[in-house]
Design brief:
Elements (H helix, E strand, L loop, with lengths): L2 H8 L12 H11 L6 E5 L5 H6 L5 E6 L2 H5 L7 E5 L12 E7 L9 H11 E12 L7 H9 L9 H11 L1 E14 H6 L5 H12 L3 H6 L3 E3 L2 E15 L15
Parallel strand pairs: 1-2, 1-4, 2-3, 4-5
Antiparallel strand pairs: 5-8, 6-8, 7-8
Length: 257
């Protein structure tokens, strides 16, 4: 299944998922964003606009960018939001255009070109401005293999540990990096029901959770409460600042010299 077909299918029940637009994600982005009301923001992978619309009252203009027309079509966009169908791998914007770039639950879908995406985001940011990402991570570093195996039956994604994500940010040129972790509780069955999986993938992912290692179950705090199969997912929120590159400064002598 191609990328467009995949997201066209996912769009049908995407708004039913717990995590996109979750209050804790919005709160963290707002805290890291330090918005003043004059910002021009790019929300990369805006989807149905859950994050975009939540931030719109706090900024001057926000572009909700997504690779999928079908995802954007499900959104009820606010007046200062401009939804566009675009691929961040292509240079649509001039350099130094945005005050903030946001990518919430997006970078895991950039296997093979994650570094290129971060470089492009760095390029289009103004000097001194920030990129904020939210990315799901394994609940324990030793569970990267189990985590990756489960998601291999759902989509083609890259799995990164927190240390690897921070190192990527530094390698691109972001400085003054700060981060925090979020824990979002979801119902495993509800998540599977709304992920538009094939019956085989659905059952395989469910079995991998049921038969997971003790460390996996403990780290996810897996439990059954009122017939709900609850797990505590983990995400990292990272903010990096694009520091002005003094090596590119053109020397101008004082007036009269």
């Amino acid at each position: 299944m191609g990328t467009k077909e995949y997201w066209k299918l996912r769009a049908k029940r995407f708004s039913q998922l717990t995590i996109p637009g979750h209050a804790s994600i919005v709160k963290s982005i707002i805290r890291f964003g330090r918005f003043t009301g004059d910002e021009k923001v790019l929300d990369m992978g805006a989807g149905d606009g859950a994050i975009t619309n939540s931030l719109s009252p706090l900024v001057k203009l926000i572009i909700g960018m997504d690779i999928s027309y079908d995802m954007l079509e499900t959104g009820d966009w606010q007046n200062n939001v401009v939804p566009i169908v675009a691929d961040i791998r292509k240079s649509y914007f001039l350099g130094n255009s945005f005050d903030t770039v946001i990518a919430s639950y997006v970078l895991q879908h950039t296997r093979g070109y994650t570094l290129d995406v971060l470089k492009e985001c760095h390029r289009i940011l103004k000097d001194g401005s920030s990129m904020i990402i939210v990315l799901p991570v394994p609940p324990h570093d030793d569970l990267k293999g189990e985590f990756a195996k489960i998601f291999s039956f759902k989509d083609d994604r890259i799995v990164l540990l927190p240390s690897e994500i921070l190192e990527l940010f530094k390698s691109v040129g972001f400085e003054t990096i700060e981060h925090e972790f979020l824990s979002i509780t979801i119902d495993l069955i509800d998540w599977l029901d709304n992920s538009m999986l094939s019956p085989t993938a659905y059952q395989t992912i469910l079995d991998l959770h049921v038969n997971a290692s003790t460390l996996f179950k403990k780290s996810y705090n897996m439990r059954v409460v009122e017939n709900k199969h609850l797990i505590d997912t983990k995400a990292i929120v990272v903010r990096g600042i694009k520091v002005h590159d003094v090596s590119k400064t053109v020397y101008r002598p004082p007036i009269g010299k």
